[in-house]
Design goal:
By secondary structure, the protein is an alpha+beta fold. It is built from nine helices and 13 strands. Strands 1-2-3-6 form a four-stranded antiparallel sheet, covered by helices on one side. The protein has a three-stranded antiparallel sheet with strand order 11-10-12. The protein has a two-stranded antiparallel sheet with strand order 4-5. Helix 4 packs antiparallel against helix 9. The chain starts with a helix and ends with a helix. The structure holds N7-methyl-guanosine-5'-monophosphate. N7-methyl-guanosine-5'-monophosphate binds next to loops.
Length: 299
């Protein structure tokens, strides 16, 4: 993720003072860095309202739940919790089978047998992502939906997309927390503090940092990295995605990912390139922006 510092400064100055000063409210708002100490979830209770999405293949489930129903707020608050079984780590996998593994036999037939294996604590973690409190927009974001491709001209962007996004965008407070070292400071991989070209390189929320790429993190050559911007992004603060070429990263399809090198070259040739050209992207069928853009495209 990258960001230009002057742009950040201007934006910060324009924002309310509490965004600048660490306060108890921020603690309550879940700002913090990693710790090896056991912690509690930022809410109590969890009543499942809806399974927003699930995939048996990816071993992931997205839940909308009501929380804190016991704390006087009878209707509770909304939270999104994403539970994902993490991939095996080749260097640890043998430990699952050595010693006396905790096993339950399912069946045995000739040379074939299957078991339930209950892994030790350090090999059985579930990546858990919490969005709390979650807004209606978060619930929409995580719900599986049909998509439609749309083509957006420069005029569409100025007249429709930009005003719509300005009224709708998800908060980017989490980005300021990273840049101000109030959150995720221990995860920073690289930082350039330059006042005009500065940026922060940090692992994505979606990445568990355990897959093979972490082992090779410092040896992955540029030729094995896919470096791109999203259009449309989910969060409106300039950032760049770096993903290993062998990994089919979500959002790396042609309808969303724009290779950084090509974006730079296009802008070097013509600084107005992206203001002029038509861009194609996919929107969910229930996204109001889709209807707004489709209206302009009807014959
Ligand atoms: O280009 P787009 O806006 O879609 O990408 C934003 C990226 O930021 C996504 O890949 C998210 O997974 C990632 N992301 C979102 N949040 C809320 C966080 C966060 O709090 N920390 C980090 N490290 N990444 C995030």
């Amino acid at each position: 993720m990258a960001d230009t510092a002057p742009q950040l400064k201007r934006k910060r100055e324009a924002e309310a003072e509490e965004a600048e000063t660490p306060s108890t409210e921020e603690k309550e708002a879940g700002v913090g860095n990693g710790t090896s100490e056991p912690v509690r979830l930022p809410f109590s209770g969890f009543k499942v309202q809806k399974v927003l999405r699930e995939s048996a293949r990816d071993k992931i489930i997205f839940l909308h739940g009501k929380v804190n129903e016991d704390s006087g707020d009878t209707c509770g608050e909304d939270a999104v919790v994403i539970l994902e079984k993490t991939p095996f780590q080749v260097e640890h996998v043998a430990q699952l089978l050595t010693g006396s593994p905790d096993l339950k036999l399912q069946f045995s037939n000739d040379i074939y047998s299957t078991y339930n294996l209950f892994p030790p604590r350090h090999l059985s973690d579930i990546k858990t992502t919490v969005v709390y409190p979650a807004t209606e927009k978060h619930l929409q974001k995580y719900m599986r939906q049909d998509l439609r491709l749309i083509r957006e001209t420069g005029d569409d962007y100025r007249n429709i997309t930009l005003p719509h996004l300005e009224s709708q965008s998800l908060s980017i407070q989490w980005v300021y927390n990273i840049l101000d070292k109030k959150a995720e400071a221990d995860r920073i991989v690289f930082e350039n503090p330059d006042s005009s070209d500065g940026f922060v390189l940090i692992p994505d929320l979606k990445w568990n940092q355990q897959q093979e790429a972490i082992l090779k993190r410092y040896q992955v050559t540029g030729g094995r990295l896919r470096v791109y911007l999203h259009y449309l992004p989910s969060y409106y603060h300039l950032h760049v995605h770096f993903t290993a070429l062998g990994f089919e990263a979500p959002g790396s399809g042609v309808e969303r990912a724009h290779l950084l090198a090509e974006v730079i070259e296009n802008l070097e040739r013509d600084p107005e390139y992206y203001q002029q050209r038509t861009l194609t992207f996919a929107l969910r069928t229930d996204d109001p922006l889709l209807q707004l853009l489709q209206k302009t495209q009807q014959p």
